[in-house]
Write a structure and sequence with these properties.
alpha+beta, single chain, DNA Binding (I), subunit A, 23% helix, four-stranded mixed β-sheet, 2 domains, 6 helices
Length: 167
């Protein structure tokens, strides 16, 4: 309830802010309500869940670091070969390093120890172990924040603005 998705004037997601900050932006005329949840902040003033800035804001691209934590989060803490979602996940190079595979988002996935050992020094095709989802680099640093807030039934109204940003 307390978080609001902020869209640029072009309807691209910019960030997530508090409902108080969103209300201030609306009152100052810097943003407009795009979606609300039916609750009211005051009298007939609806509590926004998505706002859009009235003027376009240029945001410099921010690279997302390839870390174990970010990679596991991208893969939803699930083995990309068998679907196991528990403790003890490892990181696997789709194309093994010994065969020229790089440490990049598109070549790394989370894998359980069993699948990682079974795949060994082979590609998924050679091991007959297809990937559940093709690995890719997240589009923006907002990816992780939005994914966290849209799990389950939370913030359903955000989904139409972030399609493609979160898988």
């Amino acid at each position: 309830m307390s978080k609001v998705l902020v869209l640029n004037a072009s309807y691209e997601p910019l960030n997530i802010t508090s409902w108080r900050r969103a209300v201030v932006l609306i009152i100052k005329g810097k943003a407009e309500t795009v979606e609300h949840n039916g609750l009211a902040v005051y009298a007939n003033f609806p509590l926004p869940t998505v706002i859009r800035l009235r003027h376009y804001v240029r945001i410099p691209y921010k690279d997302i670091p390839l870390t174990r934590r970010n990679l596991l989060y991208r893969d939803n803490h699930t083995c990309q070969y068998c679907g196991y979602a528990g403790d003890g996940l490892t990181l696997d190079h789709v194309v093994p390093r010994s065969r020229g595979g790089k440490e990049v988002w598109e070549n790394m996935v989370s894998a359980c120890v069993r699948c990682n050992v079974k795949k060994g020094n082979r590609t998924p095709k050679e091991a007959r172990m297809p990937l559940r989802i093709t690995p890719r680099k997240p589009h923006s640093s907002l990816y992780f924040e939005i994914a966290r807030h849209t799990r389950g039934d939370a913030h359903q109204e955000w989904r139409k603005y972030v399609i493609g940003l979160t898988r």
